[in-house]
Amino acid sequence: FANLSLVQKLCKRENQINTAYLSIIGQAERLEHISKNIENNYKDVSVDLIRRISQSEGAVIHKIKMLLFLVTIVTLLSTLLCVGATMTAMTLERAKEIGLKKALGAGNPAILMEFLIESAFVGIGAGFIGYLAGFILVQLIGRSVFESAVSFRAMVIPITIVVSVAVSFLASFLPIKMALGIEPAVVLKGE
């Protein structure tokens, strides 16, 4: 790479250009139309569109998107299993507490509300922490791989929290069903 004016001077061809390569982002049809206009207006200029680079970049981006989608699905499934296991363990540990509440008059709607509120708090907290960790990780990857920062998008925060709360509710379905089925007489015998 050298300065154009220097190369023109060395080749004794000031103000002349033989070949120029441009990287232009745009739609293929629009670029073809522009190249035909240039060739029609300047008879001594020929324009050749090189599509291989943009096609390979598009293929790489598509593969990265598919990989990230797959990683997201696997992460959501593993999160579902982890939250479900944690909520099940909590339900088993609190079986006597739930039985006592039922014996004192708490109905299934009250127990259901308690578990749903706990699940919502878990989902909201996990959503915020996940968003912050993900944003920091994306910044690191963006700078190291693409030499570019990723912009902050506020609309992603509520989406992340809603998905996190939905996963938390879904994971809590079986533990809640188990908690609602607890019989006070069975768990409190001998107490």
How are the secondary structure elements laid out?
Blueprint: H1 4-10, H2 28-41, H3 52-93, H4 95-103, H5 108-145, H6 156-171, H7 173-180, H8 184-187
Describe this structure in words.
The protein is mainly alpha-helical and 191 residues long. It contains 8 helices and no strands. The longest helix is centred in the middle third of the chain and has 42 residues. The chain is rod-shaped. The mean pLDDT is 85.
Outline of this structure?
The chain is 72% helix and 0% strand. The chain has helices at 4-10, 28-41, 52-93, 95-103, 108-145, 156-171, 173-180, 184-187.
The total strand number stands at: 0
The N- and C-terminal alpha carbons lie at a distance of 86 Å
Q: Write the H/E string, N to C.
A: HHHHHHHH
Query: Could you describe the largest sheet, including whether it forms a barrel?
Result: none
Low-confidence stretches: none
Q: By helix and strand content, what is the structural category?
A: mainly alpha
Query: Percent of residues in helical segments?
Result: over 70%
Number of helices, counting only DSSP H or I runs of 4 residues or more: 8
Strand content is: under 5%
The shape is rod-shaped
User: What is the typical, i.e. mean, pLDDT?
Assistant: 85
The rounded Rg comes to 31 Å
